[in-house]
Fold this protein.
Amino acid sequence: MSATVEFFFDVGSPASYLAWTQLPRLAAETKATVAWRPMLLGGVFKATGNTSPVNVPAKGRWMTDDLHRWARRYGVPFSLNPSFPINTLTLMRGAAGMQMRHADRFLGYVDAIYRAMFESPRNLGDADALVATLREAGFDPGEFAALVADPEVKARLIATTEEAVGRGVFGAPTFFVGEQMFFGQDRLEFVREALLAAT
Amino acid sequence: MSATVEFFFDVGSPASYLAWTQLPRLAAETKATVAWRPMLLGGVFKATGNTSPVNVPAKGRWMTDDLHRWARRYGVPFSLNPSFPINTLTLMRGAAGMQMRHADRFLGYVDAIYRAMFESPRNLGDADALVATLREAGFDPGEFAALVADPEVKARLIATTEEAVGRGVFGAPTFFVGEQMFFGQDRLEFVREALLAAT
């Protein structure tokens, strides 16, 4: 039996990016399936009263060091995006839309966006930078614009975000293994244990 | 050469309690010295704009599960105190005072308080419960009352709290190895690495 880990994430969250880099290996090692759950972190914050850690300046400064430490431990590139935090509504509609309409391109899309967020940072809140990023990854900007304007896509992102909040999510990344919830990329070892116990 | 880890903590913080249970072994394994730095977490919050995670209800619920998971991993008892959070001003003045005036009894005091906070929980905001806890641990409540009213003791707690804030502390527990700061009992592995690298 293969266990499933649900991964609720937003492309604006650097900790979600770090988790994203680790999930393929974790899934392979535990023979688990990843259920990708793109949600809007801003919507989660609004619904729960939570805020970004960077709103407390001292916490934001420490978080930067901490994220770099984890990236070194994982052996993955990481640059804090100078445009951070950005409004990720369009980007996350894109993720929800790819998953609905072009499932085979979903992972490639998220990967391209994460690289432009935290590996070679661009300001993806800027339309030109987004268009360039999409083109380089082989996506048609016109088709993308239509996708993120699709009411069903918008509704899907809202529904996933509301589902997350209803299940207790207050930040990103959040993982579920069955009913067990784990918050933070720094809880991947607990996720691993839960997946191994579930198989 | 022996490295030193500074441990900034408040007895009201359940994550600080978990770190407290792990530090003796960590120090032994890394041949490090622990510099105990009692501070007032409420003062840190006020100075930095940070707040207790329990102020976001969904985060507070998850944190309870998370603390129990860590306690199981560490193999230590843990009960969330039903009186949590409490005002720890008197308790932390006690810690600062023991360290100043009765250094040989400092660890025994903190241990007794942590056990009454998170092992067999009592409401230590209640004067009778505090007196009973002190008596059972062999402390004279009258001497304790004089200690926590001592202006030099009060000043020491303020000074340590201000020093912490000045060095970037925004929560508890926080560890320093030299200039490197680590926040959270879930960063003890990074503390261990820093101590090993420093020797």
Observations:
- The mean pLDDT of chain B is 96.
- Chain B touches chain A through 24 residues (CB under 8 Å).
- The two ends of chain B are 6 Å apart (CA to CA).
- The longest helix of chain B spans residues 57-74.
